[in-house]
């Protein structure tokens, strides 16, 4: 095996810049996905059938098709249909955010369902408005239970973020490919990028365990 790590040394700063570029759109996507996912979760437990149908159909569509297909449709089809030349960054945020919201909606719905129904009944008996009950009573308890699952979703998005390299976005993965193409050596830069991804996932996993431990102490 002929490995020459010295050749990638000048490119290391270029590849390390990909960490923030990757996390930048992943963080925005998870925030976007959390907001949309919360709305969808509330739709799913709503007594209004059209809202429940829309939320269920949305979840089924985004969970039932590949993320890379959703990314390609947004990046390639939006300009064709609207004439708007959408950027790779915005395409990545929309694809990952919309996809994540489908999973987050199920996580939040499960968290809401796990809250003791007696609390809902007590709030209704006291005449607490539905919106206030959700914001002040139900959602805070649900979020406490689902934070580990949301952290896992964040970790999954970080790993899957590598597919944005297919639309030319200069994330961590794409930078490794660029270096490989410049050097005509792909193993070293891709292995280096792989180690960075592994390090990111390990750090996020430790943060997730810490959060879970703090919540357990709080209980």
From TrEMBL:
Residues spanning the membrane: 20-43, 55-77, 190-211
Organism: Halolactibacillus alkaliphilus
Subcellular location: Cell membrane
Residues in coiled coil: none
SUPFAM superfamilies on file: MetI-like
Gene3D superfamilies xrefs: MetI-like
Keywords of the record: Amino-acid transport, Cell membrane, Membrane, Transmembrane, Transmembrane helix, Transport
CC annotations in GO: ATP-binding cassette (ABC) transporter complex
Protein name per the record: Arginine ABC transporter permease
UniProt cross-references to InterPro entries, sorted A to Z: AA_ABC_transptr_permease_3TM, ArtM/GltK/GlnP/TcyL/YhdX-like, MetI-like, MetI-like_sf
Signal peptide: none
Keyword NADP part of the UniProt annotation: no
Single biological process term from Gene Ontology: amino acid transport
Membrane topology reported for the UniProt record: Multi-pass membrane protein
GO MF terms held by the record: transmembrane transporter activity
Domain ABC transmembrane type-1 residue range list: 19-208
Domain of life: Bacteria
Record family assignment: Belongs to the binding-protein-dependent transport system permease family. HisMQ subfamily.
